[in-house]
């Protein structure tokens, strides 16, 4: 009887701590390897990537955790990326001093294209990629610490539509050189959208949240006026809660995330003095951990989207080859995306009624 209980406990623990499944990478999968340095590596694309309304044929891979278009970010590691004037996508931009970068740009890797197409097809319709770019930052370290970050960025494109994945299987640090990691989408004209917890110590929680109910995985369509969350494609009755921020008038360039415990349908009232949304008819939602909203300075303009809760059910099965690591289950904060121009978007899907909140453990990438 004791043996049965132990086996059952092991099964339950294994199910609760499901690992983020990275796209296959490494030299055995056709990747090129970049040893860590402070210089970016240029990559010419066989099929152009459309980012915002522009089309790009060249990108630069930064060892500091970002890709940029047409010019490198080599001189920008101490600046807020929204002020640099370079179009870029940053899964985790921070100064580092060790690790490896794997990348490939391919139109012939049928397995990678099929994998991306399958994952995208669950959330967006009528898209078949003809080209993919995959960049994996493995075991990135910072000065004076043995902690490591592993994360991945994947782009799928057909020359007209483009989608991006950001995957975070294992994050152990968020601050380097007295600056917190930046993450988001940045256009050279100043438009930008910041990921949840960008510029905060809570960035390590990215491995435990998602906008597609798959812990540590984020997906966006990037070929439009603004990067688009997949829930806009599938749902007309999403729960929203908007709050405006003005980074230029704030001492904190990346304010802490604001999490609402109950999401409701609402719209921004431009005449509202503090630019907060007044909920109308709250929906019945799964009970979530209560997180106090922080006061917002008057006159702030940028929108921050808030949503409570994530789901335990992962989009993909666990990586059977991943190295398991043990962490203490915690309630997972909901995902938040701050934006300067976004009029309508959504964050992680609420847990289905009766579904527990997820608490996966971090894992080390497996190639």
TrEMBL record:
Residues 224-367 are annotated as: Disordered. SMART domains: NIDO. Residues 87-225 form the NIDO domain. It holds the Pfam family NIDO. Residues 257-270, 355-367 have a biased composition (Low complexity). Keywords: Signal. Residues 318-342 have a biased composition (Polar residues). This is NIDO domain-containing protein. It comes from Steinernema carpocapsae (Entomopathogenic nematode).
């Amino acid at each position: 009887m004791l043996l049965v209980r132990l086996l059952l406990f092991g099964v339950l623990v294994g199910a609760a701590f499901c690992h983020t499944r990275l796209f296959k990478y490494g030299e055995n999968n056709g990747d090129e390897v970049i040893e860590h340095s402070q210089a970016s590596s240029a990559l010419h694309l066989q099929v152009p990537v459309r980012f915002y309304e522009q089309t790009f044929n060249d990108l630069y891979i930064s060892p500091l955790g970002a890709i940029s278009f047409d010019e490198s970010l080599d001189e920008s590691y101490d600046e807020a990326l929204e002020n640099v004037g370079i179009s870029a996508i940053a899964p985790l931009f921070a100064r580092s001093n060790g690790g490896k970068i794997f990348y490939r740009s391919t139109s012939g890797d049928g397995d990678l294209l099929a994998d991306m197409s399958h994952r995208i097809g669950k959330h967006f319709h009528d898209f078949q990629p003809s080209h993919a770019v995959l960049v994996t930052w493995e075991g990135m370290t910072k000065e004076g610490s043995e902690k490591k970050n592993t994360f991945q960025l994947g782009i799928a494109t057909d020359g007209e539509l483009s989608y991006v994945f950001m995957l975070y299987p294992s994050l152990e640090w968020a601050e380097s050189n007295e600056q917190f990691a930046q993450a988001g989408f940045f256009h050279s004209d100043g438009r930008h959208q910041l990921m949840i917890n960008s510029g905060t110590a809570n960035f390590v929680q990215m491995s435990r949240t998602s906008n597609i109910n798959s812990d540590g995985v984020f997906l966006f369509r990037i070929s439009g006026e603004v990067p688009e969350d997949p829930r806009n494609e599938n749902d007309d009755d999403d729960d929203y809660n908007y709050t405006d921020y003005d980074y230029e008038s704030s001492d904190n360039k990346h304010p802490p995330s604001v999490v609402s415990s109950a999401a409701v349908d609402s719209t921004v009232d431009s005449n509202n003095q503090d630019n907060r949304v007044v909920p109308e008819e709250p929906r019945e939602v799964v009970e979530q951990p209560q997180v106090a909203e922080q006061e917002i300075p008057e006159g702030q303009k940028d929108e921050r989207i808030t949503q409570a809760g994530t789901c335990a059910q992962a989009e993909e099965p666990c990586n059977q080859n991943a190295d398991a690591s043990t962490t203490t289950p915690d309630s997972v904060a909901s995902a938040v995306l701050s934006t300067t121009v976004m009029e309508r978007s959504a964050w992680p899907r609420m847990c289905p009624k009766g579904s527990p909140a997820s608490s996966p453990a971090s894992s080390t990438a497996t190639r």
